[in-house]
Amino acid sequence: MQQNMITIRNLSKEFKGQSVLKNITMEIPKNCVYGLLGANGAGKSTLLKTITGLLNPTSGEIYFEGHKWTRADLADIGALIETPPIYENLTAWENMKVRALLLGIPDEKIQKVLKNVDLTDTGKKKAGAFSLGMKQRLGIGLALLNDPKLLVLDEPVNGLDPLGIQELRALIRSFPQKGITVIISSHILSEIQQTADYIGIIAKGTVGFEGKLQEQQDLEALFMKVVAKGGNES
């Protein structure tokens, strides 16, 4: 039987009476890359911020590994939402050390994570001089320091060049083998096609489609159909 890392039931979120998420129900299996798709303004970031505790839902429930989500579950969640939270006047090691001190994590773990995100050879170079791809990898490294079971990435390839995208894709694909479930949001269909195992498509604050991503599936046609309908696509 498939085990879920995240189960969402009838989740809604309103801002000043305006519905942004409407009765969202989703299942995100363990040890997969789950691609969350939607046009700009569809509600992707709001949903991710709710899963990571940055926002409280107006109604509905979120379950983490089968139990109702509590703030204690944040210890098992890493997230990179919007821009990487880095100090540009510090090196990669120093950025990691700041976070490690807050979490009580030893230096050996910093070196391991820097190796995982391919930033061990940056030496004394300040993060402000990093390429955008390196900054994204450092942001992911910071999110990995607490050994999360769930990693949430909001539009991580935005602004990256083709090489940076390829490197980041390979990194993300490696996580499920390490016992990390990944939720990655994007509006770049081709990237999700190459990265995700499962997809969910949000249209106008509702789930228009959810399921396993099939090989040779015409994701663009499915996406356009769901968005055009603004509702469920069976």
Automatic annotation (TrEMBL):
<keyword id="KW-0067">ATP-binding</keyword>
<feature type="domain" description="ABC transporter">
    <location>
        <begin position="6"/>
        <end position="229"/>
    </location>
</feature>
<protein>
    <submittedName>
        <fullName>ABC-type multidrug transport system, ATPase component</fullName>
    </submittedName>
</protein>
<dbReference type="InterPro" id="IPR017871">
    <property type="entry name" value="ABC_transporter-like_CS"/>
</dbReference>
<comment type="similarity">
    <text>Belongs to the ABC transporter superfamily.</text>
</comment>
<keyword id="KW-0547">Nucleotide-binding</keyword>
<dbReference type="GO" id="GO:0005524">
    <property type="term" value="F:ATP binding"/>
</dbReference>
<dbReference type="InterPro" id="IPR003439">
    <property type="entry name" value="ABC_transporter-like_ATP-bd"/>
</dbReference>
<dbReference type="InterPro" id="IPR027417">
    <property type="entry name" value="P-loop_NTPase"/>
</dbReference>
<dbReference type="GO" id="GO:0016887">
    <property type="term" value="F:ATP hydrolysis activity"/>
</dbReference>
<dbReference type="Pfam" id="PF00005">
    <property type="entry name" value="ABC_tran"/>
</dbReference>
<dbReference type="InterPro" id="IPR003593">
    <property type="entry name" value="AAA+_ATPase"/>
</dbReference>
<keyword id="KW-0813">Transport</keyword>
<dbReference type="InterPro" id="IPR022501">
    <property type="entry name" value="ABC_Gallidermin_ATP-bd"/>
</dbReference>
